Amino acid sequence: MSLLDAGKSNVREGGPSFSLRHRLFRAVWNLTWAAAGSWTPVPLHGWRRFLLNAFGARLAPKARIYPRATVWYPPNLAMADHAVVGPGAILYNMGPMTIGPYAIVSQRAHLCGGTHDVDDPHFQLQPKPIAVEAKAWIAAEAFVGPGVTVGEGAVLGARGVAARNLDAWGIYAGNPARKLRERKRF
What we know:
Elements: H1 20-36, H2 45-54, E1 58-59, E2 64-65, E3 70-71, E4 77-79, E5 84-85, E6 90-92, E7 97-99, E8 104-105, E9 110-112, E10 114-116, E11 125-127, E12 130-132, E13 137-138, E14 143-144, E15 149-150, E16 155-156, E17 161-162, E18 170-173, E19 178-182
Parallel strand pairs: 1-4, 2-5, 3-6, 4-7, 5-8, 6-9, 7-12, 8-13, 9-14, 12-15, 13-16, 14-17, 16-18
Antiparallel strand pairs: 10-11, 18-19
């Protein structure tokens, strides 16, 4: 399925960035998630995992996604065993998004996998991948921008903003995120 209607529409004039088929898929997904997934009790990780996988996500059997999390496009999401997405987290995964083993995306964190080309007269969308590697932690209400890789074991503190890659085993905080120190490896 082609995601972008590249060169076919002018976003500034209200034209769509994505094909009709893609937008219909997302509409069915959003209705399904609202009706059968988002509100479910916390222990029903398996059910939410089933719904996401049924719509094309690749969630390992021990991945956990909590209620009220938002996944924009399931086929672009991959989560390893013991990866966690907390309640109210937003995975705006226009591009591929991977969450490694034992990585945590805490409550209300926002991972934004796309931007617009500000130099394009049509302001076209540019999906970009996001990777949260093994044992990394995105703390509450933090923001991870398009194209960012959060290295293995890295920490992005609460409400921190990562616009660039975070080094493995570094602890970061602030806007923009600055490295505070190294994290102990385990």
